[in-house]
Write a structure and sequence with these properties.
Elements (H helix, E strand, L loop, with lengths): L9 H7 L3 H16 L8 H15 L7 H8 L5 H9 L5 H16 L5 E10 L9 E5 L4 E15 L2 E10 L10 H6 L11 H15 L6 E4 L1 H4 L2 H9 L3 E6 L4 E3 L5 E2 L14 E2 L4 E2 H4 L8 E8 L2 E14 L10 E8 L4 E6 L7 H10 L2 H12 L10 H30 L1
Parallel strand pairs: 1-5, 5-6
Antiparallel strand pairs: 1-3, 2-3, 3-4, 6-14, 7-10, 7-12, 8-9, 11-12, 12-13, 13-14
Helix pairs in contact: 2-3, 3-4, 3-14, 4-5, 6-14
Pfam families: DDE_5
InterPro entries: IS701-like, IS701-like_DDE_dom, RNaseH-like_sf
Protein name: Transposase IS701-like DDE domain-containing protein
Length: about 425
């Protein structure tokens, strides 16, 4: 009977425009939805606990931690078993994830789709949760005690959803001093340190190999766009990237003269060929009065049209070694509030501006996923400390978000018909 209770998050019902009759059917639909992933479980009790966690994420509860959800729906005696379900119980989250990705791809897959990578940070107290450390926390805009995860999303004309995730483990967590802590947090013994960008590239490689999500584009923010090695890795996978960059990124708008720098009379004579023409920042490029800007509507937002002035040109980036990078597109857009955004793309020279504008809008999809999952589904409301528990919690957030996607698509079709 628990799953039939009509305590859904009000925004979920509002945006779908559900009738009272439809709301009454949601409980049964949620049970049937969760049943699709039943082959991941060893016991029926596990499936029951999973249903409760999923229902809690979709509910109107202000507190969506596992403990709070268990108390609300199952009572105090089931709190511990609910927590263990995510942190330690033996069930196959890999099977669940594979099934989830197939379900998401069935709804969204499109040859013109985009995979996006981004990080999301979760402030945490204490020092006993897997991967927790004092590090830059994007959510707070400063260095703070937090966990950091890397995520992949997928977007197409049909919608968007999160695809995969991995918890970032700071390098100090692999020191001998952290051996006991790693064991307590159930960190895999064979896990090795990787930078965030290396993790992101590996996640993309996994998606390429799995083949569930056909994608023309890869979208990312400036933390990845500033990393030439990451962009080279994306290119090597056969993808076209649309990568945000920082305003101080250096480029050449014309191929520079290359040669040995003049000897300054001290030290060793230069032996390595370098660009001899000075580079310029993309912010300086944007001030060029000869650029042709065009006004476009990039998307329809909650508050109306999102308009911008856009332009693009071919440039050669200056890489981390100060050398000439591969020629690519520099795409720039100025929003109505004066904000300027810059991006690199390895799209072909015959890629149309319309295609690039579409890529620019799809890049926002992963931020929309984060906003919805945190504001509606309790993505950042968890208390488990284990590495396994973090990944299982996020997987259930993915399931809840997929259920929302199905509601939107189902009732959109009904309204159209």
């Amino acid at each position: 009977m628990m799953m039939q209770e009509t305590d859904w998050h009000p925004h979920i019902l509002e945006e779908a425009g559900l009738s009272e009759e439809a709301i009454e059917q949601l409980g049964e639909e949620l049970v049937a939805f969760h049943d699709r992933f039943s082959d991941a479980f060893q016991r029926s009790e596990q499936q029951r606990l999973g249903e409760v966690i999923l229902k809690g994420m979709l509910s109107d509860a202000g507190n969506k931690t596992t403990e709070a959800v268990a108390l609300r729906y199952l009572g105090e005696k089931k709190v511990r078993s609910s927590q263990l379900f995510l942190s330690k119980a033996k069930w196959d989250e890999n099977t669940m994830q594979e099934n989830y990705q197939q379900e998401l791809a069935r709804l969204l897959a499109d040859e013109q789709g985009m995979l996006c990578v981004d990080g999301s940070d979760f402030p945490k107290k204490g020092k006993h949760s897997a991967g927790v450390a004092r590090q830059y926390c994007g959510r707070l805009g400063k260095v703070e005690n937090c966990q950091s995860g890397l995520f992949v999303s997928y977007a197409s004309t049909h919608g968007y959803g999160l695809v995969d995730r991995q918890l970032y483990m700071p390098e100090k967590w692999f020191d001998d001093d952290y051996a006991k802590r790693r064991k307590r947090c159930r960190v895999p013994e064979d896990l090795q340190f990787q930078t965030k960008n290396e993790i992101a590239l590996d996640l993309l490689r996994k998606q390429k190999e799995a083949g569930h999500f056909p994608a023309q584009w890869i979208g990312c923010d400036a933390a990845f766009g500033a990393d030439g090695k990451f962009l080279q890795g994306v290119h090597a996978l056969g993808y076209t990237y649309f990568a945000d960059i920082r305003c101080n990124q250096q480029v050449w708008i014309e191929e520079p003269e290359v040669g040995l720098p003049p000897y300054k009379g001290r030290g060793r004579r230069p032996t390595k060929v370098q660009p001899l023409t000075a580079s310029m920042s993309v912010a300086e490029v944007a001030q060029d009065p000869s650029l042709h800007w065009q006004k476009v509507t990039l998307a329809q937002g909650a508050k109306g049209s999102i308009n911008a002035q856009v332009t693009r040109l071919r440039v050669s980036p200056k890489n981390q070694n100060g050398l000439l990078g591969e020629e690519c597109w520099l795409y720039m857009r100025v929003f109505e509030d004066g904000t300027i955004k810059y991006a690199f793309s390895n799209a072909s020279e015959n890629c149309t501006m319309a295609e690039m504008n579409r890529a620019a809008t799809m890049r926002w999809s992963i931020e929309q996923c984060f906003n919805e999952c945190k504001s509606e589904l309790g993505m950042d409301q968890y208390e488990m400390r284990s590495y396994v528990g973090w990944h299982r919690h996020m997987l259930y957030v993915f399931l809840a978000h997929l259920f929302l996607l199905q509601i939107r698509m189902t009732f959109k079709k009904k309204q159209q018909s």
